[in-house]
Write a structure and sequence with these properties.
Blueprint: H1 20-28, H2 42-46, H3 50-60, H4 62-77, H5 82-109, H6 112-132, H7 139-151, H8 156-167, H9 173-201, H10 204-223, H11 246-275, H12 281-301, H13 309-325, H14 333-361, H15 367-392, H16 397-417
Helix pairs in contact: 3-8, 3-10, 4-5, 4-9, 4-10, 5-6, 5-7, 5-15, 6-7, 6-10, 8-15, 9-10, 9-12, 9-14, 11-12, 11-14, 11-15, 11-16, 12-14, 13-14, 13-16, 14-15, 15-16
């Protein structure tokens, strides 16, 4: 359990926190073992609650990566068209993007456990019902269930990132956010593989049940930890919540374009695989991007004194865009796989800087909702990038590869233009 400090009033030996968010973090942060703040990145996982929370959240977030494939395969097994399956998957994703900020606002006014547990029950129930519904005969019912499953997705990712400021010393926020960003690649690699394996070994219906089980199990693991049951004492002072922060709006705008790169890269991988008649490339190229993210996140976490997010984000964003430029060149498969690692090297650092900035720029009492908005706009950008790259796929490799490059360039431009708004206290 987290024990609040005896007093929130700074003394002469304790400097006053620079921001209201820092004051909340200081009052809730547990005491760390001596020398922890000077130790390497591994010590973060030894900080109380960090490893169990990270592991539970990764399990609880598996449905986000499993559901799109499971829903598509379930629709096909019911002899529904691919278009119907795609609509169901899109409804799930869109509902999740809408539901996360709404649930995040409720978390900021109560606790993560109080919101996530009933949400997991509703989402899990919708997945289970969807497993027995005939998508071809009852497409409307299947659509409603997909929307409910998405809307009620437990806000574990946003909740966890809001908790880092309460659990980890500010000087090490870049490390824990980099670790978090790199670890989430496990979700997007393992999720589709797990869904496909369950579909092949059992049935698409059981894959949807597996989504319900994973979401519930991960939520229970997180809710059992003390930090998830700590009630925030802060309250938002404006009805817009975190959107009242101009700096956060700049970050969200850039994050939409960042999401475009991720959605477009998936289409680029499929298009490249089809062009070379090598289906395995459709999975290997995203895996190479994820590998790069793991490497980049690990390297970023080892930095002892990183730049502040307002300065680091434009630089990392520019490097991210430059790395995508390499993918414009027609290359043999082995070189394309290697080139796909390059933008991944800046993916986790970009996310780490973005969430550090998001936490600092959010008005007091809106940290969870702010993180949820960041997650939501990245998801919306992914959907837009997938749609845009799909339209350009007919014009060849260079046209398709131009979409993620353009998204990354626009994200970097937005960060450069708004860098003063991103300056943190």
């Amino acid at each position: 359990m987290i024990t609040p400090s005896p007093s929130s009033v700074p003394t002469s030996s304790t400097p006053a926190p620079a921001t209201a968010a820092a004051a909340d973090a200081e009052s809730l942060r547990p005491s760390l073992p001596a020398g922890t703040e000077r130790a390497g990145g591994r010590s973060i996982l030894r900080t109380p609650h960090v490893a169990p929370l990270l592991a539970g959240t990764l399990v609880g977030r598996l449905p986000a990566a499993m559901a799109p494939i499971a829903v598509l395969l379930a629709a096909r097994s019911d002899h529904a068209s691919t278009a119907v399956g795609a609509v169901l998957a899109a409804l799930y994703a869109l509902a999740g993007a809408i539901g996360q900020p709404l649930l995040g606002r409720v978390v900021d006014r109560s606790t993560l456990a109080a919101v996530a547990l009933p949400a997991a029950a509703v989402s899990g129930g919708a997945f289970t019902a969807l497993a027995v519904v005939d998508c071809a005969a009852q497409p409307l019912t299947a659509g409603v269930l997909s929307v409910v499953a998405g809307l009620a997705t437990p806000p574990l990712e946003a909740g966890l990132r809001a908790m880092w400021s309460r659990l980890i010393d500010p000087s090490r926020h870049h490390q824990v956010f980099a670790l978090d960003a790199a670890a989430q690649e496990v979700v997007f690699v393992a999720g589709p593989l797990l869904a496909t394996a369950v579909c092949l070994l059992a049935s698409p219906g059981w894959a949807l049940v597996a989504c319900a089980v994973a979401g519930s199990a991960g939520t229970l693991a997180v809710a059992a930890r003390g930090p998830a049951r700590v009630r925030s004492t802060a309250r938002a002072v404006h009805w817009l919540g975190p959107l009242h922060s101009t700096g956060l709006l700049v970050l969200l705008a850039a994050s939409v374009f960042f999401g475009v790169t991720l959605g477009a890269f998936t289409v680029l991988s499929l298009s490249y695989a089809e062009r070379h008649h090598e289906g395995w490339l459709a999975g290997v190229l995203p895996a190479a991007l994820s590998l790069g993210s793991l490497l980049g996140g690990t390297a970023w976490a080892k930095l002892k004194r990183p730049w502040p997010p307002g300065r680091a984000l434009p630089v990392v964003g520019g490097a991210y865009a430059a790395a995508f430029a390499v993918l414009l060149l027609p290359a043999p498969p082995w070189l394309m796989i290697t080139a796909s690692v390059l933008p991944g090297m800046f993916l986790a650092p970009w996310l780490a800087c973005a969430f550090v900035a998001c936490d600092a720029l959010a008005p007091r009492g809106t940290a969870t909702e702010a993180a949820a908005w960041l997650i939501a706009v990245i998801g919306l950008g992914q959907a837009a990038g997938t749609a845009a790259a799909g339209q350009f796929a007919a014009y060849g490799h260079t046209a398709t590869a131009a979409v993620p490059l353009l998204g990354a360039a626009l994200a970097a431009a937005a960060l450069v233009a708004g860098r003063r708004r991103l300056s943190l206290p």
